[in-house]
């Protein structure tokens, strides 16, 4: 389960990430609570707009951020983005502590956080594969998710308590301090032990090259569509948890506790994913279905305790889906294009929020929080249906050869992928993934 820890670089990165992520979850809790209760009168729509501004830049800047992740030294890129995020956190803290923060100013800072994260996310995701071998990449991705959710267990609960005891401004100060852990980790990494970068032999290419690659991979297209549906309509947890906490008569600490409970299931899902030898699409499909069912059940829970209990299942299915999708994209993508493909993937995940968060906020204000959660559950069921439909169409789910009325799922059945790029653009190293048969798109014309 912990085979990636054999790498000194990854161990160092993991420790810095845990500390920094704790601060990040503390800040996320404080920001949501400030917008919902201090800058507005429980306005879920304003909270949705804040999320849209924060997660919109990865979608708008995707053509640039993926190119930067592939073109420049990812460690240096991360040093710049982590420093920028630390300074932004200190800026918000200063405005909150002096009492001059307004909703428009918070919108501006949310957008600035989004721009910094737009460059940080693809470089950070691709940097994982620079620190470990290809065989350990899926494990490293899962452990990264585990670290993220270990922090999620602690961060929101601590953030909620600090808001009550000290005020929201000091939570942003605490987060700024935790960024130092990641900055120190990046400076300690042994550059000579990083995996040599594989670059495309074609000049330029940019995002278009990555997009053509994904377009020629039906399996990646299905993964992206499923992640978008659930990301847009089902993963608006700050809106859902905060408004449900208010419905049950809880304060900021009650909201923080819900986020931590969600992380219990998330951590279990990440650790289970770390045990798998590779990422499989069937796990992604089943997790999407589980998310849909768990979300619909949570929307019907009558009390704070029962709602919190079901959130464990929601967290488990969510992280199982995202970790599997991330690992599958990383381990089956050509190394020379990994940064651009991951930028597209992160744009789908983070860019889905500007689409779904304002809608979710409007549904909460117009109908109820339970209705918005149910809509997210339906999105999960639809994503599950798309995944099953693709498995049938691709031949992975088919009738058992020896038994007439039995179905079997074949993970090794080759996929036919259109060669949309110059063969010279591809890495020569074998990929630990489902065998892929490359065919000429003109074969049918001959």
Number of helices: 16
State the separation between the terminal residues, measured CA to CA.
49 Å
Number of domains: 1
**CATH topology (level 3) name:** Growth Hormone, Chain: A
Largest sheet: 2 strands, antiparallel
Q: Can you give the helix content as a percent range?
A: over 70%
Question: Widest sheet: strand order?
Answer: 1-2
Low-confidence stretches: 412-446
Instruction: Give the oligomeric state of the chains in this entry, treating copies of one chain as homo and distinct chains as hetero.
Output: single chain
Structural class by sheet pairing and helices: mainly alpha
Mean pLDDT: 80
The CATH class label is: Mainly Alpha
Q: What fraction of residues sit in β-strands?
A: under 5%
Radius of gyration: 22 Å
Number of strands: 4
Protein name: MFS transporter
Region (Disordered): 420-446
Membrane topology: Multi-pass membrane protein
Transmembrane segments: 12-28, 48-69, 170-191, 220-242, 254-274, 281-301, 307-329, 341-364, 370-393
């Amino acid at each position: 389960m912990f085979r990636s820890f054999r790498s000194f670089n990854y161990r160092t990165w993991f420790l810095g990430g845990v500390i920094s992520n704790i601060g990040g979850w503390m800040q996320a809790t404080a920001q949501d609570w400030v917008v919902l209760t201090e800058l507005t009168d429980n306005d879920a729509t304003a909270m949705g707009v804040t999320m849209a501004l924060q997660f919109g830049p990865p979608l708008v800047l995707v053509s640039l951020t993926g190119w930067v992740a592939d073109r420049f030294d990812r460690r240096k890129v991360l040093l710049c983005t982590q420093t920028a995020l630390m300074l932004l956190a200190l800026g918000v803290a200063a405005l909150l502590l002096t009492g001059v923060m307004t909703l428009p100013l918070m919108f501006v800072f949310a957008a600035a956080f989004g721009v910094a994260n737009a460059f940080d996310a693809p470089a950070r995701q691709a940097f994982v594969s620079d620190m470990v071998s290809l065989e350990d990449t899926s494990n490293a991705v899962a452990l990264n998710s585990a670290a993220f959710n270990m922090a999620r267990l602690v961060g929101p609960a601590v953030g909620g308590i600090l808001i009550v005891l000290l005020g929201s401004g000091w939570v942003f100060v605490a987060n700024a301090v935790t960024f130092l852990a990641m900055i120190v980790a990046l400076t300690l990494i042994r550059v000579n032990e990083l995996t040599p970068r594989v670059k495309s032999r074609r000049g330029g290419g940019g995002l278009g090259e990555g997009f053509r690659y994904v377009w020629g991979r039906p399996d990646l297209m299905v993964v992206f569509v499923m992640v978008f549906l659930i990301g847009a309509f089902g993963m608006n947890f700050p809106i859902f948890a905060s408004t449900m906490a208010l419905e049950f008569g809880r304060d900021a600490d009650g909201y923080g506790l819900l986020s931590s409970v969600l992380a219990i299931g998330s951590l279990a899902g990440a650790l289970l994913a770390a045990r798998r030898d590779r990422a499989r699409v069937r796990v992604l499909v089943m997790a999407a279905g589980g998310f849909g069912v768990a979300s619909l059940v949570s929307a019907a829970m009558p009390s704070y305790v029962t709602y919190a209990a079901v959130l464990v299942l929601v967290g488990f299915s969510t992280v199982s889906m995202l970790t599997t999708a991330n690992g599958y994209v990383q381990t089956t993508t050509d190394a020379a294009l990994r940064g651009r493909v991951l930028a597209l993937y992160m744009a789908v995940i983070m860019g889905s929020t500007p689409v779904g968060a304002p809608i979710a906020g409007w549904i909460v204000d117009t109908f109820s929080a339970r209705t918005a959660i149910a809509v997210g559950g339906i999105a999960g069921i639809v994503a599950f249906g798309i995944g099953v439909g693709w498995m049938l169409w691709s031949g992975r789910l088919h009738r058992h050869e020896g038994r007439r009325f039995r179905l079997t799922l074949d993970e090794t059945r080759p996929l036919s992928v259109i060669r949309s790029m110059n063969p010279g653009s591809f890495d020569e190293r074998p990929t630990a993934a489902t065998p892929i048969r490359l065919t000429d798109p003109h074969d049918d014309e001959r």
